[in-house]
Amino acid sequence: MDIIEDFIPAGRKNRPGRKINGPCFITIHDTANPEKGTDALNHARYLKGDHAAELPISWHFTVDDTRVVQHLPLTEMGLHAGDGGEGPGNSTSIGIEICENADGNRTKAEDHASELVAKLLIDLKLGIGAVVQHNKWNGKDCPHIIRKRQDGWSIFLESIKQKMHQI
Question: Which DSSP helix (H) or strand (E) runs through 144?
Fold first, then answer.
């Protein structure tokens, strides 16, 4: 799997530069941005812009139907869990956003995300129990697309397990 490194510049408000504890978890999100053109590269541009810095918001990877873009090193904390700057979601987990752009293929995006998560679990020596929904940290209905599908979360986890056996 090719990963495009397009890091948020050091020193910006949404790249705090603090060391992540672990990481112990991989947190799955949906971008909540269904507009056409809002693919992984578009989100990379957004994260380097002033709006994301002012919020501040950041995550480690954005995945679409054709690519994976990395925005932060795995050793640094992101601001994605909605549980406060030093909350356990931000301070212990890798944040992955799955694109839901109308001109993309969501099935392929989820497939790429499950492949990325499988690779990360192996590289970080974590088990499938380390994969969590954004919902775990602050109760938000996220990843909303997977959550509203019948057995969506268990199917997504099963896809990750299958990919782990293939790697």
Answer: helix 144-148
Strand order in the sheet with 3-5: 3-5, 68-70, 61-63, 93-98, 25-30, 131-133
Q: Torsions phi, psi of 11, nearest 5?
A: 90, -10
d(CA 148, CA 155): 12
- Helix H or strand E encompassing 95: strand 93-98
pLDDT digits (tens, 9 = 90+) for 69-114: 999 999 999 999 999 888 999 999 999 999 999 999 999 999 999 9
What is the signed CA dihedral for 99, 147, 25, 111, rounded to 10 degrees? -50
pTM above 0.70, yes or no: yes
Of the candidates 50, 154, 22, 34, the one whose C-alpha atom is nearest the C-alpha of residue 98 is 34
Give the H or E element holding residue 98: strand 93-98
- Please write the tens of the pLDDT for every residue from 118-142: 999 999 999 999 999 999 999 999 9
In this structure, are residues 59 and 96 in contact, taking their beta carbons and an 8 Å threshold?
yes
- Report DSSP letters for 47-69, one per residue: HTSHHHHHTT---SEEE-SS-EE
